[in-house]
Every structure is written in structure tokens, then in C-alpha cells.
Amino acid sequence: MVRDGIDVSQYQGQIDWELVQKHIDFAILRCGYGQDIPGQDDPTFKRNADECTRLGIPFGVYLYSYATNEREALSEAKHVMRLIQDYKMEYPIYLDLEDPRVGSLTNEQIERNCRVWADELAKNNYFPGFYASYYWWTSKLTGAFFTRYTRWVARYAEELGAEGFDMWQYTDNGFVEGINAPVDRNFAYRDFPAEIRAGGFNNFEAEGPQQPEQPTTNYEVGDHVTFDHVYISSESSIPLIPYMNHGTITRIVAGARNPYLIGNGLGWVNNESITGTMRYLSNPTYRGDSLVDALTQIGVDASFASRRDLARKNGIENYTGSAKQNLELLQLLREGRLRQ
Length: 340
Description:
There is one protein chain. The protein is an alpha/beta fold. The protein contains 10 helices and 15 strands. It has helices at 17-20, 45-55, 70-84, 100-103, 107-123, 134-139, 192-199, 291-297, 304-313, 323-334, and strands at residues 3-8, 26-33, 59-64, 93-96, 128-133, 150-154, 167-174, 183-188, 224-227, 246-252, 260-262, 267-269, 274-278, 280-281, 338-339. It is elongated. The model has no long low-confidence stretch (mean pLDDT 91).
């Protein structure tokens, strides 16, 4: 079901929300711009948020970003959270990326800033996302990181003509009764209210049965596991798409929602997100150059058939037992990365 909404700021003046609610399904309100300075709060935000709350209009918020480094990005995250802490919002918390100063940064720096901002909100159980023009999405916000969070695009055309976006700002010159200025109009293609309420994001209480206070831990430090999603912290409930779908458990926090830390910070996982285990052979002390001897030393079958099977599992097809192939497998064995 497509929902029709607006986004507003101080530039729409004082809005008659009782009239507006007859014509929209949701609203995205600007809460401010830049770092966590009260003088940079949107002066209409509190009234708009209070009116939407009073009238039951589902809403989310956005902050216009000026951040040029990670420190400023963190301040912008704190700016948003200071303003929204008392509101229950059924739509995401967006970072508005369009300022020329931000656009002059490298794509890598923009991504680092966005990661700091979004991860801070996710850690505090908010539902973050990013807003940008179609040009920005296709030329600046191109890293894999941006697929983790919801995406809102501005593209003024008859049809969106692109995939991968949950919300489309289709005009900046709309009209809605109750607003005495042009207003941005948007289509939302994702059922944010159901998802956010059920997940307990944006200051809502999670619906349905809760996870047990002391989840069991089925794995141990050192286990190499596969998983389909990760979390930003041991207590986060927002699943993220990982850069890699396997890794080694390096820490366990007993009783946490997501008790297993993967690697040096790839993410946190739980029993439900783990899809299996991967076993690796290791012989870090072996100093020779014979794969057969190294395998035999740790009690592993070193026959040609066994070595051919190991080669296939480690990406070497058509194993012939050549010196080059054996040395490649031996190096993996020394590093503890020979998949069994």
C-alpha cells in the first residue's frame, strides 16, 4: 500500500494541522540543522510534533546535515536525539544530505560521517535513514553501507524510474489545504508504522512476546560461524546487512540480546541470526614446506583424495597436487584459515 505524505520545516510557516490531516497519510518534520546547538533547532518543530501527536498523524523527522567530519556527525546525531526523545514516531529519522559543503567531501568521508550518525541512532533504538537527490544517490552515496538503512530519494519526475528506495519525494511544489506555502510531497512504499511499532523503535514499546532476559549461548569464543545479519551492539534490535556473512566469535556477553561479537567489530549476532558453523584447520607452528607433513602432524588425512577435497572447499578447482597448489593450501593452514 502506497502512502502519500509531506515533509515540512519552518519555511511552511504555521500549519493548520487539523485541515492538513484530511489530505495526508504521514508527515516528515524537520527538527533542526547541523550540530547540537539549540539555536539550530527548527523553530516550528515542537509545535508541529505536538500537533501531529495530538491529532494522531504518523510522523518522522529529518535533520539537515552540515557535518564534514565524524565529530560533527556525532553531534548531529545527539542533536536529533535531544529533540525527539519525548515523541513516538512511526516514520524514520532521516539525515538530509544535500548541502554543498558536504557534497565537496570525498565519498569515503561522507560515508564515514553517515556511519557515525546512523550507528549512534541505531544503538539507541531509533530507526535511521538517509535523504538525498537521485544524483547524490548515484554519484556520492554509493558505498555498500547505505544499503543497511532506509533510503529516501528526491527525484521530480512523472515516475520514480529507479529501485532500492522506500520513499520518493516527487515534487517540491505541492499544495495542501492548511499550508500557505509550497510543500514537498512524498510517496512511501514501505509499511513503516507496522515495522517500527512491532520492533519497538522510535520510543515505542516492542509488540508481541519479548526475548528471554537470559538467552542461551549455543556457541563459544573461537567458533567460526555464518550469519545472515548482524547488529550494531549487543542490545540493538535493528538487523543490518553485513559486509561479510561469516566470521569468528571473539567475545560473548552472557544474557545480552546479541551475545556474540564477530571479529574486531564486524557486528554482533545471536542464535537466530547464525545460520551455521565453519571449521578451519590450523597448524601455525609448522615450519616445513610439505602440505602432507603439516596435515599429518595435526592428525588430518593427507591422502590425495582428502587434499583434493580440501582444495575444492578452499576455492581451488582441478587439484593436481602441484607445488603451487600445495603451497597455497599450506599458507592457509599456517594462518588457521584452511576450511575443512
